[in-house]
């Protein structure tokens, strides 16, 4: 099996548990309540032991609307492989252009492409978008 992982050292190094062309959902946790919550859904192009290069869509949480809003165009992201990101491997059949976030009647937050997968982020402990005003976020 070949990958884009290359190492000139003679010592064996751990290889990330990811393959080229896999579809991934990356969640970047926020550090502060005022930070924008960002998710990324894309296809792995290359990787090494410290980062992943992927091409896909950025999603940013708009608390005024109460959902995640997708970027209009696809973009290339360099994503660090560290404890600060959460990566989910999505089905190979995932249609990137159809990926969207939905809030159910029970206020659960799902990410889906409408055809091949639905992932309930609420059950995984990820916070739901809020339409409530945050005094801390407004600096009051």
Q: What is the share of helical residues? A: under 10%
Strand content: 35-45%
Give the overall shape: globular
Number of strands: 9
Q: Work out the count of structural domains.
A: 1
| Oligomeric state | single chain
Question: What number is the mean pLDDT?
Answer: 79
Termini gap: 56 Å
Round the Cα radius of gyration to an integer and report it.
17 Å
Task: List low-pLDDT spans.
Answer: 130-140
Helix/strand/pairing class, anyone? mainly beta
Number of distinct helices:
0
Secondary-structure element series: EEEEEEEEE
Please summarize the sheet with the most strands.
6 strands, antiparallel
Task: Characterise the protein shown here.
The chain is built from no helices and nine strands. By secondary structure, the chain is mostly beta strands. It has one domain (23-124). The strands form two sheets. Strands 1, 2, 3, 4, 5 and 6 form a six-stranded antiparallel beta sheet that branches. Strands 7-8-9 form a three-stranded antiparallel beta sheet, with no helix packed on it. A hairpin with a 5-residue loop joins strand 8 and strand 9 (118-120).
